[in-house]
Amino acid sequence: MNGPENELSFLRPARQRALAVGVIASVLCLIGAFFNRQQFFHSYLMAYIFWLGIPLGAFGLLMTHHLVGGTWGFVIQRLLESAIRTFPVALLLFLPMLFGIPDLYLWARPEALAHDEILRQKTLYLNIPFFVFRAMVYFAIWISVSHFLTRWSDDQDRAADGALTQRLQHLSGPGLVLYGLTVTFSAIDWVMSLEPRWYSTIYGMIFMVSHGLVALAFVTGVGTVLWNRRPLANVTASWVFQDLGNMLLALVMFWAYLSFSQFLLIWVENLKNETPWYLARMTGGWGVVASVLIIFEFALPFLLLLSRAVKRKAETLCTIAFLIVGIHLVEVFWFVEPALHPGVFSIHWLDFAAPVGIGGLWLSVFLWQLESRALYPFHDPRFVAILDKMSGA
């Protein structure tokens, strides 16, 4: 391989520790399932949606990068590619939820259908065989498109072929359309249908932006660990941090806009089929969680990322990025858990164990993928042009 070699052997102990912690936490979750099956599946769903959001967001960001270019994208491209290469593992981690569909979803319980006309009207879409089929379609699209995105990128490392760049661009256009559709319907299937009488037309877009935000925050945080090492240190400057900080700021604002728009429209309409969703998340302690989201997922990052000095300092940007990642877990918790405990705040030890278990397994695979590849697409003609411009400046 031409160009600087990947020097990420120092990540191997972290990968091994992540795997060990993930296995131990997963065993504890299985033990917890014997004592409280329904709580286990709700905690597992919450943790799964959180960690799946990172490769899904990376999927959208990577295709956007291939369409528009920009130095920011080349700096994090291999981090994004390593994330989307975890989709096969995400599929395996999804399979346990198939055993808990009746525990999670009201529409999958025959006794509920027998006494609810609204649920019976939705059975054409909300039924177990079609639910499983749609999930397999989502994963088939994510895995197949990500396979070509990463394979052609690897081919480009071995041969400086401009045609491969065009292939990536041509795939990314329709890929983004498929991304929007699959993320929207997966959010409806896996999260919104927890409360099948409620609906929102902006729900899928909120998840798309949330996934993009947490993915960008995650790769920015991981990147700051690597940017002080070769080869990243050779081509990374403070203005690259500023570009990533600006993108984080934009996504934070977009997330706040969409979330507030949904709340405002539903609250003003005051319809009995819509407002209960928010009432269940604003009473009994859940309102405190909502306030935490407003402060730490919008207000604080927004104020900090307005500062040019903050965005140009890697350590500070790393702290903000991981704050966003952590608070996103709280957001998913706020979306999922009130469906099981409406109006009464409840937190279970499985709500901690499940994210650690799934996260340890996912992180170990992500780090393994990251170790196995060059950190920069050194043979991408667009990146070569940027390097030439930087060296001539």
Report on the architecture of this protein.
This protein has 393 residues and is an all-alpha fold. Helix content is 77%, strand content 0%. Helix 2 runs antiparallel to helix 9 (162-190), helix 2 (37-68) packs across helix 10 and helix 10 packs antiparallel against helix 16 (314-336). The model is unreliable at 1-6 (pLDDT under 50).
How much helical structure, as a percent, in the residues?
Answer: over 70%
Q: How much beta, percentage-wise?
A: under 5%
Distance between the ends: 27 Å
Question: Segments where pLDDT lies below 50 for 5+ residues?
Answer: 1-6
Mean pLDDT rating: 89
| Cα-based radius of gyration, to the nearest Å | 21 Å
Element-level helix/strand string? HHHHHHHHHHHHHHHHHH
Q: Main sheet?
A: none
Protein structure class:
mainly alpha
Overall shape: globular
Count of discrete alpha- or pi-helical segments spanning 4 or more residues: 18
User: How many beta-strand segments?
Assistant: 0
